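To: structure subgroup
Subject: Chain for Friday's discussion

All,

I'm putting the inputs and outputs inline so they're searchable in the archive.
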Amino acid sequence: MEENKQKERHYRLLGEAQSADPSVAEAATEALIVENMGLVRKVARRFPDRGVEFEDLVQIGSIGMLKAIRSFSLERGTAFSTYAVPLIVGEIRRHLRDEGMIRVRIIK
C-alpha cells in the first residue's frame, strides 16, 4: 500500500513539474529531485575509479534525473525510476566519454 501512495505522489509531482505554471513546476521538480537523490547516488556508485569524483558523478546524474522529470510520460503506467535510471546512466556515460581523461583524436 505504501508503494502505491509513493507512485501516486510521484505521478502527481511529475504532472506538476510539467505544468505551464513556472512556480508550480519548479517546486515539484525540486521535490522530485530531493526525493530521488538516493537513486542518483546509487547509480553513480556504479562508476568507481573513472577519474571523476563521486560527488561530481552525482551532479551529472542529477542532470539525467532532471531530463527524466521533464520527458516522462504519465501515460506509461510504469514507475518513474524505471524510466529515470537509463537516463541517469546515459548522462554519466556521456560525460565520461566526452570529458574523460583520455581522448582519441584522428588527425588527417
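Points worth raising on Friday:
The chain has a mean pLDDT of 89.
The radius of gyration is 16 Å.

D.
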